[in-house]
From TrEMBL, chain A:
Top-rank taxon: Bacteria
The species this protein was found in: Mesorhizobium zhangyense
Residue stretches making up the ABC transporter domain: 2-235
InterPro entries per the UniProt record, alphabetical: AAA+_ATPase, ABC_transporter-like_ATP-bd, ABC_transporter-like_CS, BCAA_Transport_ATP-bd_LivF, P-loop_NTPase
Database matches in SMART domains: AAA (SM00382)
PANTHER family found in the cross-reference section: HIGH-AFFINITY BRANCHED-CHAIN AMINO ACID TRANSPORT ATP-BINDING PROTEIN LIVF (PTHR43820)
Pfam families per UniProt: ABC_tran (PF00005)
Protein name: ABC transporter ATP-binding protein
Any one of the GO BP annotations: L-amino acid transport
A single GO molecular function term of this UniProt record: ATP hydrolysis activity
The entry's keywords: Amino-acid transport, ATP-binding, Nucleotide-binding, Transport
From TrEMBL, chain B:
Primary subcellular site in the record, as a coarse category: membrane
Protein name per its UniProtKB record: Branched-chain amino acid ABC transporter permease
Entry's transmembrane regions: 12-32, 60-81, 93-113, 142-159, 180-208, 223-251, 263-281
Pfam entry (one): BPD_transp_2
CDD domains: TM_PBP1_LivH_like (cd06582)
Organism of provenance: Mesorhizobium zhangyense
Length: 235, 296
C-alpha cells in the first residue's frame, strides 16, 4: 500500500530525516516510535506532501507520489492528522467535517451519510455540532480532526501523536477508536511517544532515532526488546 | 427628522461603498497575508472599460456587466502577474511586484488613453433625486445602499453556506491544513482575487457614478479607504472590514456636517487623528478575528 524508500527531509542545513525506509501493507497498523526530535513528524508530513522530500521516494499502490502536493495526496487516498491538531477554530464542528469531505463534495448523499456516521460515532461532537471548533476541549478537538480526516474516505490514515497532552481516559477512548478504524480495514501509520499504547494496537513498529530507523519488527518484538528504553530515551 | 434621514442615508451609502471596498481588499489579505496594492487599479479598469464602451450604444446594464467582468479579469491577472511568480519568496518581493503592477496599469491608462478625466456613461437615474421625509436624496445613494446590502448578503451566504466559502475561511486561518484536506491552493487564491475584482468592479461603478469621470489615479482613494477601514476593523476579520467601512463613513460624514467651511479642508487630518485614537485604544483593530499565523 504505502512504501517509503531512503527518504530525506531537510530544513535548511538541518537534516531531520536521513534515509528512512518503511512500508505499510493494506489494513496494517504501523507505529513509528522515537524520542523528541527523532524526525517522526517530519517523515509523516513529508508523506502527506506538506514537506518536500530532499531525497528518496514515496510510493502509494506502486505509484510514485514523491513530493506530490498535499491536495493531490488527499485525492490519492491519504488523509493526515498532524500533531498540531489543526481544527479550524472559527468554523463550526459541522463545517470542519464538511471540509474533510472536500475531495468528494459532489457526492452529497454520501457526505451527509458519513457526517451522520461520524457524529454517531462521537456523540460529544454531535452535541457540539453547531459550536465553533475552537471552543472544544483538547480531547474533543482530537476526535474532530480524526473524524474530519475520515470524511475523505481515505485508504491510508497518517496519525501524529493523537494522545499528546490528553488525559488517560481520553487517550483510552482515542485508542479504542483507532482499533475500530483498523478493524474496518484502513491502513494506518501511527506516530506516538506513548510506546506501550501504540504497541498495543500496532501490527509492526519502527523506532526512529536522530532521523534514522534504529529498529523495526513486529509489535511484540519491539515491545520485548530489552534495549527499547535505551533506544527510545537515547534520543 | 429630515436631518436625521439625510444623515443616515449619507452614512449608509458612503459606508456601503467603503465596506465593499474594504471587503475586496481583506479577502485577499486574509488568505495571502499580503496587501494587494494594485487593488485601486481594479476600480480604474472598471472605469476605463465604461469609458471605452461609452459610444457603443449598448444598454447601460450590459456595459456595467462587462466593466465588472473586466475588473474580475484584472483581479485574476494581478494574481498571475504580481503574486504567483514571487509568492514563495519574501513579503517584500510581493509588495514591490504589486506596486509595480499598479504603476504599470496606471501608466498604461496615461499613455493609451489620457491623463485628463474621461467621461463615463451613466444612466439617467444616477442624476435624479427623490424626497424622503423632506430630505432631498440622490437616487444613486439609494442604489449604493441597496447594492451594498445585496452584495454583503450574497458574500455572507457564499462564505457561510458554500463549500468554496467554507474552504476560503479555512484557508485564511490555516492554509496548509486546508490543503491537507484536499482544498487546492490555487483555486482558493484565484477565487479570492476574482471576488476582490468583482467587488472592486461594482464599487467602481458606484464610486465613479458620484463624479461621472475616470482618471488614471482614481484608485488611490478607494485603496486608502479600504486600507484604513480594514486597519480599524481588524485586518483578519471580514466582519471587521465591513464595520470599519461603516465607521469610517460615519466619521467622515459627521465631520462633513459639523466642520465649518475653513476647517473642512482639513477633514482628512481630523479623520486620521480619530483613526490613530482608535488604534491606540485597540492596536489590532476592533474585531480580533480568528487566530491565524503563517503567511502562505
Ligand atoms: N520547521 C522547522 N525548521 C527547522 N527545523 C525543524 C523544523 N521542524 C522540525 N525541525 C527539526 O527537525 C528535527 C525533527 O523534528 P520532528 O518534529 O520531525 O521530530 P519528532 O520526532 O516529531 O519529535 P516530537 O516527538 O517532539 O514531535 C528536530 O531536530 C527539529 O528541531
Ligand atoms: Mg512530532
Amino acid at each position: 500500500m504505502l512504501e517509503v524508500n531512503d527518504l530525506e527531509v531537510r530544513y535548511g542545513a538541518i537534516r531531520a530525516v536521513r534515509g528512512v525506509s518503511l512500508k505499510a501493507d493494506t489494513g496494517e497498523l504501523v507505529a513509528i516510535l522515537g524520542a523528541n526530535g527523532a524526525g517522526k513528524s517530519s517523515t509523516l508530513m513529508c508523506i502527506a506532501g506538506a514537506l518536500k522530500a530532499a531525497g528518496g521516494s514515496i510510493r502509494l499502490d506502486g505509484q510514485d507520489v514523491t513530493s506530490a502536493n498535499p491536495e493531490k495526496m488527499v485525492r490519492a487516498g491519504v488523509a493526515t492528522v498532524p500533531e498540531t491538531r489543526d481544527v479550524f477554530p472559527d468554523l463550526t464542528v459541522t463545517e470542519n467535517l464538511t471540509l474533510g469531505s472536500y475531495t468528494r463534495r459532489s457526492d452529497r448523499a454520501g457526505v451527509t451519510e458519513d457526517r451522520e456516521r461520524m457524529l454517531a460515532l462521537f456523540p460529544r461532537l454531535a452535541e457540539r455540532a453547531a459550536q465553533p471548533a475552537g471552543t472544544l476541549s483538547g480531547g474533543e478537538q482530537q476526535m474532530l480532526v480524526i473524524a474530519r480526516a475520515m470524511m475523505s474516505r481515505p485508504k491510508v490514515l497518517l496519525l501524529d501523536e493523537p494522545s499528546l497532552g490528553l488525559a488517560p481516559v481520553i487517550v483510552d477512548q482515542i485508542f479504542e477508536m483507532i482499533r475500530t478504524l483498523k478493524q474496518s480495514g484502513l491502513t494506518i501509520v501511527l506516530v506516538e511517544q506513548n510506546a506501550r499504547k501504540a504497541l498495543s494496537v500496532a501490527d509492526r513498529a519502527y523506532v526512529m532515532r536522530l532521523g534514522k530507523i534504529a529498529a523495526s519488527g513486529t509489535a511484540a518484538e519491539i515491545g520485548a526488546a530489552t534495549d527499547l528504553s535505551a533506544l527510545y530515551l537515547g534520543g | 427628522m429630515t436631518f436625521t434621514v439625510q444623515f443616515l442615508i449619507d452614512v449608509l451609502s458612503l459606508g456601503g461603498a467603503y465596506a465593499l471596498m474594504a471587503l475586496g481588499l481583506v479577502i485577499v489579505y486574509g488568505i495571502l497575508k499580503l496587501v494587494n496594492f494594485a487593488y485601486g487599479e481594479l476600480i480604474m479598469v472598471a472605469g476605463y472599460a465604461m469609458f471605452l464602451m461609452g459610444g457603443s450604444g449598448l444598454p447601460w446594464l450590459v456595459m456595467a456587466g462587462v466593466a465588472v467582468i473586466m475588473a474580475v479579469i484584472a483581479g485574476i491577472a494581478t494574481d498571475y502577474v504580481a503574486f504567483r511568480p514571487v509568492r514563495a519568496k519574501s513579503v517584500t518581493a510581493v509588495l514591490i511586484t504589486s506596486f509595480a503592477f499598479s504603476t504599470l496599469l496606471q501608466n498604461a491608462a496615461l499613455l493609451f488613453i489620457s491623463p485628463r478625466p474621461r467621461p463615463v456613461p451613466l444612466p439617467d437615474i444616477f442624476s435624479q433625486t427623490v424626497t424622503i421625509f423632506g430630505a432631498i436624496t440622490p437616487v444613486r445613494n439609494l442604489i449604493t445602499i441597496v447594492a451594498a446590502i445585496v452584495l454583503l448578503a450574497l458574500f455572507a451566504w457564499l462564505m457561510r453556506r458554500t463549500v468554496l466559502g467554507i474552504a476560503m475561511r479555512a484557508a485564511a486561518t490555516n492554509f496548509t491544513m486546508a490543503r491537507m484536506l484536499g482544498v487546492p491552493a490555487n483555486l482558493i487564491i484565484t477565487s479570492a482575487f476574482a471576488i476582490s475584482g468583482f467587488l472592486a468592479g461594482v464599487v467602481g461603478l458606484l464610486w465613479i457614478g458620484r463624479i461621472g469621470t475616470v482618471v488614471p489615479g482614481i484608485g488611490l482613494e478607494p485603496l486608502l479607504v479600504a486600507f484604513i477601514a480594514t486597519v480599524i476593523g481588524g485586518m483578519r476579520s471580514m466582519t471587521g472590514a465591513v464595520i470599519g467601512g461603516f465607521l469610517l463613513a460615519l466619521i467622515d460624514t459627521t465631520l462633513n456636517y459639523t466642520l465649518s467651511q475653513e476647517l473642512l479642508k482639513f477633514r482628512d487630518a481630523f479623520t486620521f487623528s480619530l483613526v490613530i485614537l482608535i488604534l491606540l485604544w485597540r492596536p489590532d483593530g476592533l474585531i480580533k478575528g480568528p487566530a491565524s499565523g503563517q503567511r502562505t
